[in-house]
Amino acid sequence: MVLPIVTIALAIGIFVVDTTTDLEIAAAVLYVAVVLMSVRFLEKRGVILVSLGCMLLTILSGLLTPAEINQTGLINTGISFLVLGLTAYLSLKIESARNMAKALVEANQLRDALIGSVSHELRTPLASILGGASILSEMPTVVKDQHLTSLVKGIRDEAMRLNSDIQNLLDAARITSQGLQSRRDWTDPTDIIAAAVQRISPRYPNHGIVLDLSRNLPLVHVDPVLVEQAFGQIVANAAKYSPPASTIQIVAKVENRQLVISITDEGVGLTFDEKGRFAERFFRGQRHIGKIAGSGLGMWIANTFIMSSGGKLEALSPGEGKGTTIQIVFPISPHIDDEETVTQEE
Length: 346
Description:
This protein has about 350 residues and is α+β, with helices and mostly antiparallel strands.
């Protein structure tokens, strides 16, 4: 209640001083200050009324000051009108944008909290489904019946896919709500690759995964858990977007004092637009929507995890239908001498 009274008093004070004294005050500038103050505590309608009130006071001041009724006075009054109108319009636009940004942040925080909560709740029953499907798949009755075997396999595969989707949601919520805490350690990249392949390959038994890792790869200073998750995400993505009987080739070597890990598939490839946006959150190519299941989070999460360990992700593709190569690049410690690097490249 205090601010509206102060604002009104200030406007009246400017009017009185401008009308009753010979002081050369910049009344328009002072009225602008009044309008800006009103934006902070009034709604849109109130700000417009304040602006109109300041315009009316400007007219009254000109009428009550005979010296002002000339060409210069009319020009000054017109400029005052223009300035007040623009100030009110721009201030309302800025305030509206600020409120929208605030609402968007709050909505995103609520969404991430809801996603995290629901995902955690889903993990327990999903774990029971996966465990039950694994036990059923080993029962003699099921093993002998091809129909039951196919049915149990379908349940297990879909449960594993759902588990992967839930993990993506949890990772996304963790990244956006709490920030990503990277715990780096000197790690052998061969161990990371082997662990990720061992974890992912059972989900895609029909794909051939070929490893071509240089001997004595240098240690890298990364978060092994996050990098393994990112690597597994990329391999899973390669399998999802390539034919079942195709090969996924993984190459790791040292190039230009950098560790370069390449994952190459024989799948759908990337268009020019997809190549530039493949790591955007929730981005999916229009040609895949409704045909290949996905949330658009996988590569964004992988890119975020890799970047948190000081690396970068690059996508290479000759074009649509010609396969894709995702490269993970990490810098090598400068303490590794050139002779060792040459040996590793050989």
